[in-house]
Amino acid sequence: MKISPGVDLAELDGYDCEIEFISQAGELKECALWFGPLKTASRRATLLPARHTLTGRDAARRISTPLAYLYEPDPAILRAGLVTTLAAQLDAYQLDADIAYLTSDAPRPTPFARAFVIEESFPFRLKRLRERLRALRVGRVTVKKRGSPLEPEELIHKLRLSAVSGPAEPGRVVFLTHVRGEPYVLIGQPVKT
After folding, report:
1. Greater confidence, 35 or 192?
2. How many domains does the chain have?
């Protein structure tokens, strides 16, 4: 049975079925319910077009401050509730119990998350972030957020990066998030594949 991927999972509690969330090219597309002999797991995340699939049970939640790499799980992983399963597979940690960003010391290729090299991380302060980006000669940023009330466009405007003089370095990704409950910023770049 196909249903909306935005379904309230509490509505499905009474059904004995597998719940599969499907994304295509990183965009959550649908949810499928599998009953009877078609049920092979309780939750599943499937990524198209490559047909990668992840099932599993909740693994023990491990928390760490930011390490050398950050993983941003695919939306199907998030909706399927398989963040701790993916963390165990990557030997990674969550930055915060309520945040789905994962971090590890070594890069581990996975189709289930985008990986980023973390260049710097520190408690969020606008002035310090602006100073660090200017010192790195960054002329543009992409802002991603989980658990932060700040809007990306508002932060980009407040950073005033166009004022950087001279040749600018390639853009960076700025992550606004929480680390053990504290507002944090991470500066990074996608891992080259």
Report:
1. 35
2. 1
